[in-house]
Amino acid sequence: MEYRRLGTSGLKVSALSFGSWVTFGEQIDEDTAAACMKAAREAGVNFFDNAETYAQGKAESMMGAILRKFGWKRSDLVISTKIFWGGKGPNDIGLSRKHIFEGMEASLRRLQLDYVDLVFCHRPDKDTPIEETVRAMSHIVGQGLAFYWGTSEWTAEDIRTAYDLARRERLVPPTMEQSQYNMFHRDRVEQEYRRLYEDIGLGTTTWSPLASGFLSGKYLRGIPEGSRFSLRGYQWLKKRFEGPDAGAKLEKVRKLGRLASGLGITLPQLAIAWCLKNPHVSTVITGASKPEQVVENMKAVDAVKHLDGEAMAKIEKILANAPAPEPDFRS
Ligand code: NDP
């Protein structure tokens, strides 16, 4: 495993990490989840991701029970959670000072931990002033309930506002963003945040490297039983890949699969290794419903060596979706 700095912070995260969305507490039972975490840990993963909303808290309870069962040394681990959707009441949702503290305490109880390493504002909250959120997150860190705080799917403008405010008010600034990043979803990480990496040292913990499994190639011949797109309650996800451009996307997946075979790696490994090639990615959060998938995906760290300039150019040609470079009006 390779360990990368989380932005310009002093924290080292495994370049591949493991998360619990859809799977823990919903799709898989505790034994399978434990087998997945064990396989990830054996491959050198130190970072495990969660959120208060995953399976309405069950994902955190399951991960907490597994961590306790394995008894891994706490200082070897980086555990995260995300706060926003904590329940149905008007104050169980959003980024008010009240929900941030109450949500954090409930998450820690479920995870059976005294602190998480990272806590994210899971989405921006239009009903809470950014200053209230920044002060609350800064106090969460000040109280030792988390070591670093960050955002998830915030605009670059809101991240910069939060950062500048924290600096001005001598509060703890956000350290990292958790954004979707994969071969079909590139603009935010590659374009919108471009200036934040240098200006504020933003770290990224990117999610859905396989576009929920679509980039594994498993959907080339329909929807396999038990796969994510077949799950009840996830039809909205399936629909994302059924639009007018679905055929073109499937064709790209087919071509990428052929390219991966030619390189002697699997398509999931190619797709995950491609994310790792981006130097602004601190860690790629992977997901899996089976330990065999974890074993396969973790080999993406070695697969990076196959993605030389020529292979990357071929991928770019297939994808044909690179964000436009920043214009240089001097030349
Ligand atoms: P992926 O896009 O990698 O999708 C993972 C799913 O793809 C698996 O559960 C499995 O689904 C399938 N899969 C994985 N590996 C293989 C393989 N080798 N071969 C075939 N199928 C495979 O990642 P996720 O969407 O799960 O996201 C990863 C993590 O990112 C989440 O767990 C969560 O921690 C985080 N996240 C954060 C979000 C945010 O808003 N901040 C939003 C979403 C995720 P199956 O077997 O069921 O088909």
List of distinct ligands in this structure: NADPH dihydro-nicotinamide-adenine-dinucleotide phosphate
Radius of gyration: 19 Å
Could you name the CATH class? Alpha Beta
**pLDDT < 50 stretches:** none
Shape: globular
Beta content comes to 5-15%
- Strands side by side in the biggest sheet: 3-4-5-6-7-8-9-10
| N- to C-terminal distance | 41 Å
SSE succession: EEEHEHEHEHEHEHHEHHHEHHH
Indicate the CATH topology: TIM Barrel
Summed over residues and divided by their number, the pLDDT gives a mean of 97
Give a written overview of the molecule:
With 331 residues, the protein is of the alpha/beta class. It has a single domain, classed as NADP-dependent oxidoreductase domain (TIM Barrel, Alpha-Beta Barrel), CATH 3.20.20. Helices cover 41% and strands 13% of the residues. It has 13 helices and 10 strands. The strands form 2 sheets. The chain has an 8-stranded parallel β-barrel with strand order 3-4-5-6-7-8-9-10, surrounded by 4 helices. The chain has a two-stranded antiparallel ribbon with strand order 1-2. Helix 3 runs parallel beside helix 4 and helix 9 runs antiparallel to helix 13. The longest helix is centred in the C-terminal third of the chain and has 18 residues. The model has no long low-confidence stretch (mean pLDDT 97). The chain binds NADPH dihydro-nicotinamide-adenine-dinucleotide phosphate (NDP).
Q: What topology does this entry show?
A:
Elements: E1 3-5, E2 12-14, E3 16-19, H1 30-42, E4 47-49, H2 58-70, E5 78-83, H3 97-111, E6 116-121, H4 130-142, E7 146-152, H5 156-168, E8 176-178, H6 187-192, H7 194-200, E9 203-207, H8 235-240, H9 246-263, H10 267-276, E10 283-286, H11 291-298, H12 300-303, H13 309-319
Parallel strand pairs: 3-4, 3-10, 4-5, 5-6, 6-7, 7-8, 8-9, 9-10
Antiparallel strand pairs: 1-2
Bound molecules: NADPH dihydro-nicotinamide-adenine-dinucleotide phosphate.
